[in-house]
Amino acid sequence: MATRHQSSSEDEKVGLDHEVEFIDHKGAAEKASHEGHAPTSVLAQVAEQEKQLSTWQSVKKYWVVFLWCMYISIGAAIGGYDGTVAGAVISIPSFREDLGDWIDGQWVVSAAWQSGFNGGSSCGGVLGGLCTGYLGDKIGRRGSLLVASIISIAAIFLEVFCIHESQVMFFLGRTFNGFGGGIFVTVASSYCAEISPLQLRGITTGAVNEWIVIGQFLSSVIIKGTGQLTSTLAYKIPLGIQWIFPLMILIGLPFVPESPWYFVRKNRMDSAKRSVQRLIGHTGADIDLHVAQIKETIELEERLTGQAKWIDLFKGTDARRTFITAMVFICQEMVGVQFVLGYSTYFFELAGFNTSDSFSLGVGTLGIAFVGNLLGIAFTNHLGRRPIFVWGMVACTIDCLMIAILSLVPGNGALWAMGVFTMLYMLVYQAGIGPLAYCIYAEISSARLRSKTVAWGVMINQAFGLLITVINPYLINPNEANLQGKVGWIFGGFGVIFTIWSYFGIPETSGRTIDEIDILFARKVPARKFSKYVITEADRAE
């Protein structure tokens, strides 16, 4: 964010130590003005100011921005909550009695309907992400959140009050809730990337994943508390609690500042200034300078690549960004997150724990995931996006291979060890590729295509999550391939392949402003050299 910052001697030293060299801004402004390149001096000035604050200084100074980002991300929790609670309620007797069939002396929800419920949610998420690209450009971030909240509230009503033997009603509820969740995640990522100052961007975008984990954790805890009830409240309560998330968004929505980037793209400059004033006015910021930075960044992108259309995602330098956006989420799925997360309780049961204790350990695993996510967010600015992501891939790959090796070892000790590696996986995953995928895909998108690029990422995430979710039971279940823990060989093998790709494909975006990232992609700088490339005034002027 742009401010008139009175640097202390310590801040000046930090600015001088930074690897990107800048020329004198007063002289640059005069030269640029004479040559007709005023935007260059604005971008250079803002870039230097944004890099002078540490992460903690940014949190303290831009606390209003930080809190609004956290508030907007609450909606992402519904994706984690709904996905976890919908799978857990199938184990509740009263739910199976209402939506199952009487087979061999017991109530059973057929595999076809289970797949349908999960598939409907994932397909809804894909469509939600797709529509957000359009909604975000037409009605802004706040308008998109309003649509998502209304849809989710209606969808949860269908889930909670589904009547006996009305599987279609529950299916529609899950599908529409997935649609709303797709919008929530897409808007949160875009909003955080747009309004956050440089040193906050990694924290706020990575926190979107943290809210998803919070949703998963809360649903597991609530199911643990209500699952022993014998009435329909055993599943209606945990499903109904989902209303908290969209209602919280609706209550605060009238007060949420719209993204100034949306207003600038609509040429509503007065509205953009008011939005920036609400976000950073308390810091004594130069509002005009900040709005000018947004305007000139958008104009720079338009000079480089033209106006935004969906087809532009797959053209020129934006095609590379689109590919990376897809790959960060494909890496997540192919290194086995659905396998480990979905079958953690199963491994604990194999180790000899009863169902109740196994479920408690599953809740503990999600608690570890929460802590891991906080660690990943905390160190993203210090260690960088690229190292954390690459080493996270390495750790998850090794973990999957260890589970596979232990599956070949007889005895209860090996089963215990598989449970331990399940917990360890969630720690390293959430400290690495979990939050960093949300950070990277939001950062590398160009401003003009951000809504569409982020929507594309959500679509890929949902689509591959659905694919792996459908395949996993056929690999693991005793009446199918019966591979159990040996599935770790498959995901460990894929992990090796995608770890190699991440080394060559993941760029370092930490410490780079939006216009600098544009320049790096326009220059076709290899991902491994992003952090070392020195951006000159000539780069900005072209």
From TrEMBL:
SUPFAM superfamilies: MFS general substrate transporter. It catalyses: myo-inositol(out) + H(+)(out) = myo-inositol(in) + H(+)(in). GO terms for molecular function: carbohydrate:proton symporter activity. It is found in: Membrane. One of its GO terms (cellular component) is membrane. It is a multi-pass membrane protein. Residues 68-510 form the Major facilitator superfamily (MFS) profile domain. NCBIfam families: SP (TIGR00879). This is Sugar transporter. It comes from Dacryopinax primogenitus (strain DJM 731).
